[in-house]
Amino acid sequence: MGDRSLLQWLLISARGVAMGAADVVPGVSGGTIAFITGIYEELIRSLNNINLGALKILFKEGIKPFWKHINGTFFVFLFGGIGISILSLAKALKYLLKNEPVLLWSFFFGLIIASIWLIGKTIKKWDAGVITALLIGTGVAFYIATLQTKGTVGSDWYMLICGAVAICAMILPGVSGAFILVLMGAYQVLIDAIEERDFLVLGIFAVGCVIGLLTFARVLKILFDKFKEITIAVLTGFMIGSLWKVWPWKNQIGDEPLVVHSDGKEDWAMQNVLPGDFSGDDQLLYAILVAVGGLLLIVVLERFAPKSES
Fold first, then answer.
1. Residue-averaged pLDDT of the chain
2. At CA 255, angle to CA 249 and CA 261, rounded to 5?
């Protein structure tokens, strides 16, 4: 097991459990958890070692040198913990999405409000380029959030793209992969797939994640290295625009569902409304309390994060 003891490897898995819990909650970043717990640099370094050079080592020197080069045991224990966490939480999240949507989305709303502040404050200089990037990010996210798709969400190619994009967010401190899935309309589809063990959907999503790790993640790293302020402004804009998507109070509109799934489940077009116009119990007081709770959770995580994270 390399230079680590079994206990140390189990602690890596424990960090993975925490990252997995963060990655299924919009507004909380698994990358931030990795940074706080001291494994972020090793994670990024290990991911960057998965390249053509690693394949050359595999074919020329064999499996053992290849495994050591990519830090394979680290990945097994870390992603094992992440997987256990996600599988454990999916059932609870599916229940809440069905039975307590107002409170759950209120919690997510609070998380994202705090994340906007947390990421936005890392921008040191607000010039015309940064402001333009913020507005573009906000506009694009708002446009995506207001789309009423017919059959696109949940299709194979779309889930492949979602996997590629979401995994890039999951490995960046402060950026929530689950938030990206919410913005793209695939969050509930994936939660259902995990809880129902739909291995076709999960497999397609996983392939997208691999593609994202090996391609887009490197592009994002270049963007952060060369255009950090602009990139952060775009990400902050994405979060601002996504608030429309996570607004807790929505009424069903239209006479026919957008999509009828094979299991009989129907997806309807939804319209944001004020709490007083909500067709069900607005749960306003409780919604405010859980939103504040979500906001405070991000503030607490930020307090524990190393000062160098920004």
1. 83
2. 80
204-210, Cβ contacts within 8 angstroms, sequence gap of 24 or more: 204/156, 204/159, 204/160, 204/163, 205/159, 205/160, 205/162, 205/163, 206/163, 207/160, 207/163, 208/159, 208/160, 208/161, 208/162, 208/163, 208/164, 208/165, 208/166, 208/167, 209/163, 209/164, 209/166, 209/167
Backbone angles phi, psi at 252, to 5 degrees: -70, 135
Residue 76: CB partners within 8 Å, gap ≥ 6?
none
Buried/exposed code over 246-256 (b: 16+ C-beta within 10 A; e: otherwise): bbbbbeeeeee
Nearest to 309 by CA among 36, 29, 116: 36
Rounded-to-integer distance, Cα 249 and Cα 275, Å: 6
State the Cα angle at 259 between 254 and 261, rounded to 5°: 140
| Three-point CA angle 47, 51, 56, nearest 5° | 135
DSSP for 242-294 reads HHHHH-S-EEEESSS-SEE-TTS-EE-EEEE--GGG-SS---HHHHHHHHHHH
Residue 153, pLDDT above cutoff 70: no
Write the pLDDT tens digit of every residue in 51-84.
888 999 999 999 999 999 999 999 999 999 999 9
Q: Answer whether 0.85 is exceeded by the pTM.
A: no
Q: Which residues pair with 251 in a beta bridge?
A: 271
Q: What percentage of the chain has pLDDT greater than the value 90?
A: 27
Q: Which residue, 46, 16, 8, is CA-closest to 33?
A: 16
Q: What is the DSSP letter of 51?
A: S
Ranked by mean pLDDT, which of 34-38, 159-163, 240-244 comes out on top?
159-163
* Alpha-carbon span 189 to 182, nearest angstrom: 10
